[in-house]
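Deliverable D5.2: sample structural annotation.
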Amino acid sequence: MDAALDAVHRAGIPGVFAQVRADGRTWQGASGVADLATGRPVRAGLHHRVGSVTKTFTAAAVLQQVEQGRIRLDAPIGDYLPRLVPGERGRKITVRMLLNNTSGIPDYLPYAFPSLAGFPSIPDMSPESIEDNRYREFTPHELIRMGLDAPPTGEPGGPTGVYSNTNYLLIGQLLELVTGTTAEDYITRHVIERAGLRHTSFPSGPRIKGPHARMYEGFYGLIDPPRDFSVYNMSWVGPSAALVSTMDDLNRFYARLLAGDIVSRASLAQMQRTVPVVALDGSTIQYGLGLHKVVVPGCGTFWGHDGSAWGAGAISLTRDDGRRQMSVAVNLQRWNRPDASGQPQPHAIDGALKSLYGLAMCEDEH
């Protein structure tokens, strides 16, 4: 595992750290630097922005409210938020469709970050709005409106979903309505604290509390050299992707969730009902209610989530029997550079990470 981490660092990631749990044993390690300017080494226990891993926490909070009878999964969102999602759309889109990304509501990101509107054509984008929004305070309603005003990605409840952060900002508003407090506060008290996590929190400002790495964004070669975005106002994602955590806490959370300690077994079964969803990178994933399903041939079925913020990436996967877990963090994002046609090309980092994940999930089976 140490050699696999070193290979990821040598391939071009400034700093990588991970924790693997297998049959009651725990390994953790780190390779590279947390700060390119000073050479400060990266450590396994650093706090890190974990991006959309947040969605599992938010979905679990909703399922708790379903268990208490305050939310119905298959009720129209218009029953709860008629002003935010009015008319026919509010009647057709259910809470479940928001959670599994089959609502047809597009992501607001190209509108909140207008210089990214050309995605996936790299020559038609610039990183300008990433810097412009560093300290900007977005409101959830402002971002939700951007998503709702954009052309739909499909019919509500269609056979294939399209991943969208707008869905989870709406879920945050639903949680606020039924709990009488912010989604972040409810998730903190009833999901994070219930799981016994001591180093997981929503940021209260643009800075990360606790020891952490600088987080370098390359944006497909358009930011060269990659720029540090570890200081950033995370109001642009909120309960969709703003959490800060550690790899130990992520493994602890998914172990408790899959053991039925955060939501009931019946709720967990709902979370594990998957549909095909087109991810932001264009790939198709099997997505439940805030959970990815990842089948690793010869090694089993894993559940979890990955996430990305500017400069920070994380992934956490737990085998369905709970006996094997992997959480990995990196402090560089969007390292793939384009070819002449503008398409991102494979990078040595991709292969090194694939090898690391394979070893972490399947070492005993090799």
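Annotation notes: The chain has a mean pLDDT of 96. Residues 220 and 337 are 5 Å apart (CA to CA).
The annotation will be released with the project's public dataset once the embargo ends.
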